[in-house]
Amino acid sequence: MSISVEQVKHIALLSRLELSNDEVNKFARELNEILSYAQQITELDTSDVPLTSHAISLKNVLREDEVRSSLSNEDAIGNAPDPEAPYFRVPRVID
Amino acid sequence: MSLAAKTVTQIRQLLKEQKVSVPEVVADQIKRIEEVEPKVCAYRSLDTENAVAQARKLQAQIDKEGYPSDQPFFGIPVALKDNMCSVGQLTSCSSKILENFKPPYDATVVSKLKAQNAVLIGKTNMDEFAMGSSTENSAFVKTCNPYDLNCVPGGSSGGSAAAVAADQAFASLGSDTGGSIRQPASFCGVVGMKPTYGRVSRYGLVAFASSLDQIGPFSKSVEDAALFLEAISGADPHDNTSVDMPVPSYSEEMKKPVKGMKIAVPKEYFAQGIDPEVKAIVENSIKELEAMGAVCEEVSLPHTKYCVSTYYLIATAEASSNLARFDGVHYGYRADGAKNIVDLFSKTRAEGFGDEVKRRIMLGTYVLSAGYFDAYYLKALRVRTLIKQDFENVFKDYQAIITPTSPSPAFQFGAKTADPLEMYLSDICTISVNLAGTNGLSMNAGFTKSGLPVGVQLIAKPFDESTLFQVAWNLEQALDLNCKPNL
Description:
Chain A is mainly α and 95 residues long. Chain A has helices at 5-14, 21-38, 73-76; strands at 83-84, 87-88.
């Protein structure tokens, strides 16, 4: 299974990464190399093997639905690139 | 010996007996940093003014009330990896996208250290977002191995390892997702350990792969590492993946003898590709353990060869999700000249992230995308179960496992940067431990002919760090290696 340049462009769009043509070609080569190596896991028979998405067997760790203090608004926008207290300013989202 | 060259345990004894003061310790630490930092470059940022002010306050407390017996890190300068949040201190993950980020909250490990009045002296250099095995992926500075300045310190916690090796911190914290504490510990000749997943809270650790990340200590001695783990362990309501189990006194439990203990030697870790000097040094450690009455036997961890593939499918998938938050909106770098919101995201991330980060985000996105999800991601999760079962099977009959930490000693800058896959394969001995969720420790076991440190890795059952430290401490006493780099 190899990734085409078109697929790399699609993945770049999904991951919101703007890439030049040179970069697309470079990443295509590198991703293909890594995926070719990773192919080896397909040789294993895992038909009866359950998934491990989590290393320890914790399930549904809950807490009481109580209101607790969080970050102050001032702290929350403290690192914002373009704050307009109490908001974060961004380019137009809806046309 | 200068103060900075001592261990945490030694310095604490001197402070307790009032033979030295906290300001003297901090001053000597800063002097040492100024002396060697131009060569080593372990730090991303330093907070020395606050450290000096804090030292005076802490000494005033000691003068009035004596050294507190319940705060083992009181007055001790320690360093944090640049991916751990501390209020008002620059935390950049060695990435341009967080270059000026000052967190508004403390990581839980930081809160615990502050409660003990440790002196948080600075943030150490790392591979960007913890993605790398050499610290060469830092967007800012190059950290050099204190034992050979032409060699890498390992990664991704290279700065934290180098700082301790060069006596620029008494101890430090790193993070380990696939070996990022243990491998640099091996390359820099210090102790580095990754606790069992869930032992230490991840709250405030900038996430790379949430099912694999753990914070752990670097130190100059096994005893210091045990003390540090005691200080940072425990359940945390801010981290639902932290486990509510008691924290033993590791520093006491480790002093039991290893006589009669059964230690497994997995043959797959000693196969082709391992440097002969590394093999010889690890085999010597095995002999030392046997001389103390431990029984070391060959075993098999049959799915070892699939570990790197499995890891790079799971970790990158998780990373692609975790790094989606870096979009130029709420914090961090924002690109100029964006035409619309999507353009803002794409330009910001393209300009803010380095190549390795982009590579992993894209690999993870691909693996999770429709059409490939079953074949890659779900398949990897099943292989992960097989890898975990390999360890469970061995731990039925053995209390610990011993392996090399890395197939080679520290390599030269640029040696593995041309081929990403080659860099990934240098994690081959450590990755399995993260996938299985258990604990691992690397400690110096010897030096190559050219003077590079070589670590031996010990692995114990999940939540059995007591046994891990027990084997490590006994081995440390037997090897009796007391070496400092020539800086």
